[in-house]
C-alpha cells in the first residue's frame, strides 16, 4: 500500500540521497524545511556539505517538473515539496518541528485513505507526533542494530589433536565451519587444558592460518591482548585495502592504526606518506566563532592525532631526518587534515587513517572510500557508543554501516577491540560512566 512520507530536515542532512530510498511511495518535503537547510549551506563542516548537496539535488529535479506538483523518481516513487496554499503568503513556522507536524496533518487531511509517516532522527519530534496521534519513525535505510554488528572474530572449540595440528603446521581446514573472509579465530581446545591459539580465515584456501607477530612490535607498540594481535595482523596485510577497528576509549584503536600507517609508509616505504583525517563535529557553536585563522580553529580537533604521533616517535625511536612531529608534517610525510578537505581529492600511494569515523554518515563514508586509489589503503577507527554528531546514532552512523556492508569482502577486515589498555582508571571510566 502506498504511503506518504514527510521528511524532517535532519534526514536530508544525514543522507542527501534519502529521497530515493522510500521505494514507490511519495516523499514529501515541507517547504519550510528548505529554509532550515539553507541556514547550514555556508558551513565548512560535513553538515554544510550535505546541505549544499541536497539543495543541488532538488534543483536538478526541479528542472524536470514542478516540485510543487510532484516529480517522478527512478525507483517508482514521487517527490513533492509541500506548500500549504492557506499559508503560502504567511511566514513559515520558526520551529522546524511545528512545520513538519503541520504539513503531515495537512497531507493526512488531503488524502485520508493514505497512511502518513513522519520520518525524523529527532526523538522529541517522534514523541510529539505520537502525542498528536500521528505515526513517526526513524530513518532506517542504513540502520545496523548494534546487537547484530559484526565483531570480526569468533571462538572455535576444537579437539586437542586438531589444535596440535594447527600449532605444528600453522593451518587447519575449516571443514564447512561458518565464517567470513579474513575473520579472526580463537581456537580453543575442548580438552582439560583449555589451550588456545590465534588464527585468521583464509577464504581462498578454506583454512584458518596462524598469525605471525612482528618481531619488534609495531613502531614500538606490542599487542597486549588477542584483539590487538588481530588488529596488527590485519593492519600489516598488504592484501587488505580496507581495515576497520572498533572499540571504546582506551582500547588502542587509533594508536595501532597510526602506528601501522607510519610503519608501512616510513619504515617499509610501501607508501609515499600518511594521511590522517577526522570529521569536524563542533560541540556548541560552529568553528567559525573560534578565534584565529583556519589552522588555529582546527587545532583542537587535530591535536589528539599529533599527540599520538609524538608518542610513537618516543616509543619507536627517532626517524632519520625528522626530529619531531612538526618536521614530519612540514615535509608532507604525514598530513593531518579535517575530513572535509579530502572531498574532491583522488588519493593514491598513501595510507589513509580516518579517526572518529562513527561521526560520519553513510554517504560521507562512501564519499571518502571512493577517493581511495588502487595503490592506497584506508584504515577507519570508531566507537559507535561515543557519537557527537546529532544527525547519526549508534545504529545509523557510517562506520557501522561500512563494517556491515564489507563483512563478506575479501579485500577488507574488521576487528572489535574489547579491552581497554590505557590505564585501569580509563578502563573503569569507559565501562561505568
Structure notes:
The protein is α/β, with parallel strands linked by helices. It folds into two domains: 4-137, 5'-nuclease (Rossmann fold, 3-Layer(aba) Sandwich); 224-432, P-loop containing nucleotide triphosphate hydrolases (Rossmann fold, 3-Layer(aba) Sandwich), CATH 3.40.50. Helices cover 33% and strands 19% of the residues. The chain has 13 helices and 17 strands. The protein has helices at 9-14, 31-38, 46-62, 96-110, 123-131, 160-169, 226-235, 253-267, 294-316, 325-331, 362-369, 398-405, 424-432; strands at residues 4-7, 26-30, 71-72, 78-82, 116-119, 135-137, 153-158, 171-173, 184-189, 196-202, 207-210, 242-247, 273-278, 334-338, 350-354, 377-382, 412-417. The strands form three sheets. A six-stranded mixed β-sheet has the order 3-4-2-1-5-6. The longest helix is centred in the last third of the chain and has 23 residues, at 294-316. 39% of the residues are buried. The mean pLDDT is 87.
Amino acid at each position: 500500500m502506498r504511503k506518504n512520507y514527510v521528511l524532517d530536515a535532519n534526514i536530508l542532512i544525514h543522507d542527501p540521497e534519502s529521497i530515493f530510498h522510500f521505494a514507490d511511495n511519495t516523499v514529501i518535503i515541507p517547504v519550510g524545511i528548505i529554509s532550515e537547510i539553507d541556514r547550514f549551506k555556508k558551513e565548512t563542516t560535513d553538515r554544510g556539505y550535505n546541505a549544499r548537496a541536497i539543495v543541488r539535488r532538488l534543483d536538478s529535479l526541479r528542472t524536470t517538473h514542478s516540485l510543487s506538483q510532484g516529480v517522478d523518481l527512478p525507483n517508482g516513487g514521487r517527490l513533492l515539496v509541500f506548500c500549504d496554499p492557506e499559508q503560502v503568503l504567511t511566514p513559515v513556522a520558526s520551529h522546524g518541528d511545528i512545520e513538519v507536524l503541520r504539513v503531515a496533518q495537512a497531507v493526512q487531511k488531503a488524502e485520508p485513505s493514505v497512511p502518513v509517516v513522519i520520518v525524523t532522527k529527532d526523538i522529541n519530534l517522534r514523541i510529539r507526533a505520537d502525542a498528536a496521534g500521528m505515526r513517526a519513525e526513524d530513518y532506517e535505510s542504513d540502520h545496523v542494530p548494534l546487537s547484530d554488528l559484526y565483531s570480526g572474530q569468533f571462538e572455535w572449540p576444537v579437539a586437542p589433536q586438531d589444535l596440535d595440528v594447527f600449532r605444528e603446521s600453522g593451518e587447519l581446514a575449516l571443514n564447512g565451519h561458518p565464517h567470513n573472509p579474513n575473520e579472526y579465530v580463537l581456537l580453543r581446545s575442548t580438552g582439560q587444558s583449555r589451550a588456545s591459539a590465534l588464527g585468521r580465515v583464509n577464504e581462498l584456501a578454506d583454512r584458518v592460518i596462524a598469525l605471525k607477530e612482528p618481531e619488534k612490535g609495531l613502531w614500538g607498540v606490542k599487542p597486549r591482548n588477542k584483539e590487538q594481535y588481530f588488529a596488527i595482523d590485519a593492519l600489516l596485510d598488504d592484501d587488505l585495502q580496507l581495515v576497520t577497528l572498533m572499540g571504546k576509549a582506551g582500547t588502542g584503536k587509533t594508536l595501532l592504526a597510526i602506528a601501522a600507517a607510519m610503519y608501512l609508509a616510513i619504515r617499509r616505504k610501501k607508501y609515499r606518506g600518511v594521511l590522517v583525517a577526522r570529521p569536524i563535529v563542533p560541540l556548541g557553536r560552529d568553528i567559525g566563532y573560534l578565534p584565529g585563522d583556519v589552522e588555529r580553529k582546527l587545532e583542537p580537533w587535530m591535536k589528539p592525532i599529533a599527540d599520538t604521533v609524538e608518542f610513537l616517535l618516543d616509543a619507536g625511536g627517532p626517524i632519520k631526518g625528522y626530529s619531531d612531529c612538526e618536521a614530519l608534517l612540514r615535509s608532507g610525510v604525514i598530513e593531518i587534515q579535517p575530513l572535509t578537505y579530502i572531498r574532491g581529492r583522488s588519493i593514491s600511494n598513501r595510507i589513509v587513517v580516518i579517526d572518529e569515523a562513527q561521526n560520519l554518515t553513510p554517504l560521507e563514508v562512501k564519499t571518502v572510500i571512493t577517493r581511495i586509489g588502487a595503490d592506497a589503503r584506508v584504515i577507519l577507527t570508531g566507537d559507535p557508543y561515543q557519537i557527537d554528531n546529532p544527525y547519526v546514532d549508534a545504529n545509523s552512523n557510517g562506520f557501522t554501516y561500512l563494517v556491515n556492508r564489507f563483512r563478506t569482502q575479501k579485500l577488507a577486515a574488521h576487528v572489535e577491540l574489547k579491552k581497554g589498555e590505557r590505564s585501569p582508571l580509563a578502563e573503569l571510566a569507559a565501562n561505568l560512566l
